[in-house]
Every structure is written in C-alpha cells, then in structure tokens.
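In the design runs reported in the main text, the only information available to the sequence generator was the tokenized backbone. The following block is the verbatim input for one such run; it is reproduced so that readers can re-run the procedure and compare outputs position by position.
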C-alpha cells in the first residue's frame, strides 16, 4: 500500500512540475510573439507614414512642374508610392489582427500560469506541514568541495622557456638597481651642493 502511495505522490509532483513548466514556457513564448508583432505593427505604420509623406512631396512637385516628361516620371513614382503605402497599411492591419489573437491567448496563459504557481505554493506548504507532523526533515544537499584541476607535468620544451623568463627578470632587476643607484647619488650630490 505504501509503495502505491509513493508512486502516486511521485506522479503528482511530476505532474505539478510539468504544469508549472509548460505554463511558464507558454506564457514566455506568447509574450515574445506579442512583442514581435508589436514591432511589426510599428514598422508597418512607420513605412505607411513615410510613403504618405513622400507621396505628398511628389504631388507638390507634380503641381509645380511644367514639362511633360517630368510629369510622367512623377506620376509613375506616385503610383509606386501609393502601392507601397497601401501594402504597408495592409501589413499593419494583418499584424494588428494577429496581435489581438495573441493578446487573448496571452491573457489565458497568464491566468493558467498564476493558477499553476498558486498550486505549486499550496503543495509546498502542505508538504512542509506534513513534514512537521511526521518529523521528517528535507534532505539537504551535501556541500561538495571542488577539486583543484590536476596540474600537467612540465614538458622538456617548456623548461628552457622558464629559464629565459627568469633571466629577463634578473636583467630587469639589475637595470632598476642601477637606476636607483644613480638617483641616490644624484640626491646626495644635490644635498651637498645646497647644504
């Protein structure tokens, strides 16, 4: 009987974990989709505004121009800009419709996630109370000491390189000793002259 209860308890905790993880994952993916669609709507409306502004400028130039060739070119550019403006408006409209659907799904996912988190907290509180009543404590993880990485044995090729480095250090030390010696003699001579 106790084995069956243990199995059911394990299945219940596993289902709880899956519920919380799928609810949060769904919420996050829908939120990302909402942000993406919002950016698309903004870019489509900006494209529509820019093409409308360009369209106004071309229309003003068309009204001011006198030559037939320039008028033909401006009319063709105006037609292209109108098509661009209309396609940008259509894209924005489609993105807004998709965004509305995603927002609805997102609100439903948010409520599911809240419920899952509340259930998780409730289960944790119940398990804590049961643990107090039965006197069982949760098993704490043992602190494992991190092992130091094993040092590699120095190969024969690396040994001469180390000697060279030490030689350079000694020459640097000698040079600095000479410099400090020069400074001290200069200080002594200046003190004697001034004193």
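Verbatim output:
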């Amino acid at each position: 009987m106790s084995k069956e209860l243990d199995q059911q308890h394990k299945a219940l905790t596993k289902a709880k974990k899956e519920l919380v993880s799928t609810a949060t994952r769904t919420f996050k993916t829908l939120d990302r989709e909402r942000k993406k669609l919002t950016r698309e709507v903004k870019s489509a409306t900006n494209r529509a505004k820019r093409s409308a502004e360009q369209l106004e400028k071309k229309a003003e130039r068309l009204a001011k121009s006198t030559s037939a060739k320039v008028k033909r070119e401006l009319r063709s550019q105006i037609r292209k800009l109108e098509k661009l403006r209309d396609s940008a408006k259509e894209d924005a409209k489609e993105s807004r419709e998709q965004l509305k659907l995603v927002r609805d799904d997102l609100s439903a996912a948010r409520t599911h996630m809240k419920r899952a988190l509340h259930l998780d907290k409730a289960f944790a509180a119940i398990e804590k109370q049961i643990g107090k009543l039965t006197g069982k404590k949760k098993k704490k993880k043992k602190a494992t000491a991190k092992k130091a990485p094993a040092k590699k044995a120095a190969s024969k090729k690396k040994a001469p390189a180390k000697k060279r480095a030490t030689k350079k250090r000694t020459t640097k030390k000698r040079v600095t000793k000479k410099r400090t010696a020069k400074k001290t003699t200069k200080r002594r001579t200046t003190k004697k002259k001034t004193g």
